[in-house]
Amino acid sequence: MTAPAPRLHYIPELLEIHADELAYLWGQRRAAILDARYTLPSFLELNERVEAHLAGLLAVPAALPALLGKRLTAAEDRDEAFAAAAGLLRLPNPALFARVVEVFATASGPRLIGLRDALGGVPLADAAPAVQALLTLGEPARAVAAATVLAQRGQLAPQDPQLLRLLLDADDGVAAQAWRALTLVDARLAATPEGAPPRPYKPALLRPALRAAVLGCAIWSAQPWVLRGLRILVTEGDAAALGWLAAVGQPEDDALILQALPQLPPLQQAALAGRWAQPAALGLLLGWMKGPDAAVAAAAGEAFTRITGEDFRGARVTPPPADDADDFAREMAPSVWLPDLPRVQAHLDAHGAALQAGTRWNRGCDLPGVPPAEVLRRIDLPARWDAAARAALAGQPFAAPPPPL
């Protein structure tokens, strides 16, 4: 006679749903970090949803090694790998933690980055030496992933020789990730009397693919040369430097930014004006909103909304595809919201003088110096990161850099 199957005290399908939702929400959370639709409160709400699904998994700890172990073995997607590893890492089981680190040591591609995300969010405890060994002995992609984990946990040595080699690795993706990990380290050191140690900025800046990450590290670590360097690179036509100068530049940089903007494609010009958010940007945005190009007008309207905090959406249209677009691009062309120009003009008539008198604007908030806590809760997340970067550059840090993406 066959023994009856053991009676379960949980519903396996519900655990699968929690794991699926955790993966989905983690992807949403990653995207939200640089998404102007999110503020700090709405981002924290998204975090709470992530934690709620983790709690749902942890309600049945005995079932997780089999369920999540299987998912971890099969995971090829970054967020699926994160969800499987995150649940296992939250269990008070050193053997399971060690197992995740073992998988991390052999993973590659999106799976490696998902495991990096999971390990970077928990205390490493006894697993720290194994992650350090991976930084020391692993091939570059795994070594830089290990460096990122250690940096997120505050355990990356500022003068680690392997980290220093990774900063100039021949692979641009590896080197850029190393600079982003270093940003977490040097931003902390910038607040100490000694400051951050010398770094190979000059050779790294000769590689255009690294400039956004390298300049970010220089800004967050308050390098005294960085504004001058940004201005030089902007005059040479570098788009990454222009983005950073728009974020952290001084009033005397307005003319240079206005001169450099036309070097960008029109859609990028509108987006950058929304990041720049100086009074000088308002006239540009109004001109683009009145222009004949629907896509540019819509992008300018979104930038104007970032600055003012008001919704000016009018008619919804589908811009004509490019002349060389294929059939798929023509069929799937996205629609956009044109700005409601009378409402835009009415807002400028009512508030234009105040906007012109301000410094930088986001969601109707003027952002001089270090914004107060209430303002930091109201502005969007990208504007909050830029405000924190300006404060760090001025020697008044109030927040850590964003996590590496």
In short:
With 405 residues, this protein is mainly alpha-helical.
What can you see in these coordinates?
Helix 4 packs parallel to helix 6 (109-119). Among the domains are: 9-122, no CATH class; 265-396, no CATH class. The longest helix has 21 residues, at 12-32. It has 22 helices and four strands. It is mainly alpha-helical. Helix content is 63%, strand content 3%.
User: What is the structural class?
Assistant: mainly alpha
Percent range for helical residues? 55-70%
What is the makeup of the main sheet?
A: 2 strands, antiparallel
Strand order of the largest sheet: 1-2
Q: What is Rg?
A: 24 Å
Low-confidence stretches: none
What fraction of residues sit in β-strands?
under 5%
First and last CA, distance: 56 Å
SSE order: HHHHHHHHHHHHHHHHHHEHEHEEHH
Tally of DSSP helical segments:
22
Number of strands: 4
Tertiary shape: globular
Mean pLDDT: 94
Summary tags:
mainly alpha; 405 residues; 4 strands; two-stranded antiparallel sheet
Write the layout of secondary structure elements.
Elements (H helix, E strand, L loop, with lengths): L11 H21 L7 H19 L5 H11 L3 H12 L4 H13 L2 H11 L8 H10 L2 H13 L8 H6 L5 H18 L11 H5 L5 H10 L5 H10 L3 H10 L5 H7 L5 H11 L2 H11 L4 H15 L4 E5 L9 H5 L4 E4 L1 H17 L3 E2 L2 E2 L6 H6 L2 H13 L12
Antiparallel strand pairs: 1-2, 3-4
Helix pairs in contact: 1-2, 1-4, 3-4, 4-6, 5-6, 6-8, 7-8, 8-10, 10-12, 12-14, 13-14, 14-16, 16-17, 16-18, 17-18, 17-20
